[in-house]
Automatic annotation (TrEMBL):
Similarity-based family: Belongs to the major facilitator superfamily. Sodium/anion cotransporter (TC 2.A.1.14) family.
Name of the protein described by the UniProt record: Probable anion transporter 4, chloroplastic isoform X3
Transmembrane spans: 60-82, 88-107, 160-180, 200-221, 233-252, 258-278, 290-314, 320-341
Membrane-topology annotation of the record: Multi-pass membrane protein
InterPro entries per record: MFS (IPR011701), MFS_dom (IPR020846), MFS_Na/Anion_cotransporter (IPR050382), MFS_trans_sf (IPR036259)
Main location: membrane
Keywords associated with the record: Membrane, Signal, Transmembrane, Transmembrane helix
Record flagged with keyword GTP-binding: no
Gene3D superfamilies: MFS general substrate transporter like domains
Compartments, as annotated in UniProt: Membrane
UniProt keyword RNA-binding, yes or no: no
């Protein structure tokens, strides 16, 4: 995680100078950002699996992902201001330096596993060890390393359930993040600074609802609801809800109404973090980081297809509505697939039978 943040912060800081040098230098800097950012969520998932017992993981993921969404809010709102004050260099310099400041806190406050943390209290360590049923196996995997069984991981349908869910999540996430300012500018004729504010509101909603979803998910499990059913409930809300809301978005005539539909879609989308995202730790705790990396690979490809495809789709049809409806349908189909094949139980990856 530390190396990832350091690398993407440096690449972000250097992006304007790379752009002044050549197109290839710019592409290299942006590729470096992507490579470095690719480690963040797998590292987070792996550490949550080691540090938090099952009854607390949903809240941990909810809080972590709330920060993820608040970053979108800050970026969308500050970037136009920083650009107006400091030119194109402004956002890249400020965000790059902020990453290095965060890195100092991270290095002084964290460790990969609880028993290696220099400041952890004896009572907290004992609590984690008592509650964390899979900690021994997870830590053993971390220490011994080895080549993960990719073939066996891919031979199980629960693996494909989280891969497809992550792919759809990335498709929707990056289409909304990349295209919504342009959508508000094109469809409702608001300027790009106003469009950034309209686009930032939904991410604020996502941060808030994500924490509530985490609290509710843990509460369901503590009260006896099976982990499998809890994950499917969260995933259904997180995909069916946005699917319906995006259909509503296509009917909006005013930017405020459109922002409300978009806020509902993105807010409900946060429930999926307590479905497929935390599910990675449950079906394969010893391979949660590896499995998350596999999911991110598929999700990145889906995000590329969705983001680039949206441009071609809009150019071909001359309207955003058709692509938004396509995204809504894909949300509904992905929710159905997850509910059929997902499980909250640990999956046996020692055999290759489906």
């Amino acid at each position: 995680m530390a190396w990832g943040v350091a690398l993407w912060s440096l690449a972000t800081f250097l992006t304007p100078w790379a752009a002044d040098t050549s197109l290839w230098a710019l592409l290299a800097a942006r590729a470096m950002v992507g490579v470095a950012e690719g480690v963040a969520l797998p590292c987070m998932n792996n550490m949550v699996a080691r540090w938090f017992p099952p009854t607390e993981r949903s809240r941990a993921v909810g809080i972590a992902m709330a920060g993820f969404q608040l970053g979108n809010v800050v970026g969308l709102m500050l970037s136009p201001i920083l650009m107006s004050q400091g030119g194109i260099y402004g956002p890249f310099v400020i965000f790059g330096l902020s990453g290095f400041l965060w890195l100092l806190v991270w290095l002084s406050a964290t460790s990969s596993v609880p028993d290696r943390h220099p400041q952890i209290t004896k009572s907290e360590l004992e609590y984690i060890k008592q509650k964390q049923q899979t900690s021994t196996r997870v830590n053993k995997q971390y220490i011994t390393g080895g080549i993960p069984p990719f073939g066996r991981l891919l031979s199980k349908m629960p693996t494909w359930a989280v891969i497809i869910a992550n792919s759809m999540h990335s498709w929707g996430f990056f289409v909304i993040l990349s295209w919504m300012p342009i959508y508000f500018n094109t469809v409702y004729h608001v300027n790009l600074k106003q469009a950034a504010w309209f686009s930032a509101v939904p991410w604020s909603m996502m941060a808030f609802t994500g924490y509530l979803a985490g609290f509710w998910s843990d509460l369901l499990i503590r009260r006896g609801t099976s982990i499998t059913l809890t994950r499917k409930i969260m995933q259904s809300i997180g995909f069916i809800g946005p699917g319906i809301a995006l259909i509503g978005l296509t009917t909006a005539k005013q930017p405020l109404v459109a922002s409300a539909w978009l806020s509902l879609a993105v807010g409900l989308k946060s429930f999926s973090h307590l479905g497929f995202l935390i599910n990675l730790q449950e079906i394969a705790p010893e391979y949660s980081g590896v499995l998350h990396g596999m999911c991110l690979t598929a999700g990145t490809l889906a995000a590329i297809v969705g983001t680039v495809g949206a441009g071609f789709f809009v150019e071909l049809l001359g309207s955003f509505q058709g692509f938004i409806l396509l995204t809504a349908i894909l949300y509904l189909l992905s929710a159905l697939f997850y509910n059929i094949y997902a499980t909250g139980e640990r999956v046996d990856f020692d055999t290759t039978a489906a």
